[in-house]
Specification:
mainly alpha; 11 helices; 81% helix; globular
């Protein structure tokens, strides 16, 4: 009996020790994860988050300036070169700063962000090549077409990087309890813009990136008044990406895209109730809607 008692005591001690070791390991892993998340937030995500907002605003200013130049020239009026130069915020310089900053802090980056970083660097290198074909006899129109495709691909990868940085910043900040409502509102419209860009692209609605960016402030005003739209678009986009990347039933696939079209219809209606150029964007969204998909 004493042997049994001793055996049970020893087994109990081993069990308690093992449990304590497991708990200690879990707690240590958790502490290490929290420590690493804090380092990621402090060294990579927090310093660039408002640079992303600045970049999107600069793209808006650039495209608005191009539109202003075009309209001014059509009217036969003279452009104020001094003011024109002052208004050019050079978004490429701002984004290159973001890219360089990521490169210096890659050890804190998520694997998907590292892949996007390398892709963006590759596109930048190709944009810098003056004669991409290495053939001076290639037609100018062909070169222009190539450059247009390259610029669109560059903007697309930049939007991916902006969205990835914003989403990781939110995920880590929420996990650490470090994201206030006021803080989130500061960049919410920028996140919504990137997600709207990707949703329009997945739905094959023909609004060009250059055109969409000119409505950046209008989109920001809409999301500021209707913040619930952020969670909706994130959920819809997540489901669309899932059905594209995985084998699912036709019903689920179609439903994901129909929900996307319904969401665009919803924001078109909200925009139609707003003043100014919001009506123009609403009209463009409605015009692009393939109604056969949402009946």
């Amino acid at each position: 009996m004493a042997d049994w008692t001793t055996g049970i005591t020893i087994m109990g001690s081993f069990g308690a020790a093992s449990t304590a070791q497991i708990i200690s390991h879990v707690l240590t892993s958790k502490r290490e994860k929290v420590k690493f998340d804090k380092e990621c937030l402090q060294n990579l995500y927090s310093p660039v988050i408002f640079k992303i907002v600045e970049y999107i605003n600069a793209e808006h200013a650039k495209e608005s300036l191009i539109k202003f130049r075009r309209d001014t020239e059509l009217k036969g009026e003279k452009i104020d070169e001094k003011q024109d130069k002052k208004n050019n915020l050079k978004p490429d310089n701002i984004f290159n700063y973001i890219l360089d900053f990521i490169g210096k802090n890659l050890k804190y980056a998520h694997p998907s962000l590292i892949l996007l970083y390398e892709e963006a660097k590759s596109l930048n290198s190709r944009l810098e090549v003056k004669e991409p074909y290495g053939d001076f006899f290639v037609r100018d129109s062909k070169k222009q077409e190539y450059r247009k495709i390259l610029l669109e691909a560059t903007f697309h990868i930049r939007m991916k990087i902006c969205r990835e940085l914003l989403l990781e910043f939110i995920r880590i900040s929420n996990g650490l309890g470090a994201l206030s409502k006021t803080h989130r509102e500061d960049f919410q419209s920028t996140l919504f813009f990137t997600e709207l860009y990707f949703l329009l692209k997945e739905l094959s609605l023909g609004i060009s990136p250059n055109e969409l960016i000119t409505y950046n402030y209008t989109i920001g005003s809409m999301i500021y008044r209707n913040s619930y739209l952020q969670d909706e678009i994130s959920s819809i986009l997540k489901e669309i990406n899932f059905v594209i990347e995985n084998s699912v039933s036709d019903h689920r696939h179609n439903e994901a895209f129909i929900n996307g079209y319904h969401f665009i219809n919803k924001i078109a209606y909200i925009l139609s109730e707003m003043p100014g150029v919001a009506m123009h964007l609403s009209d463009k969204l409605v015009k692009e809607m393939p109604y056969k998909h949402i009946e």
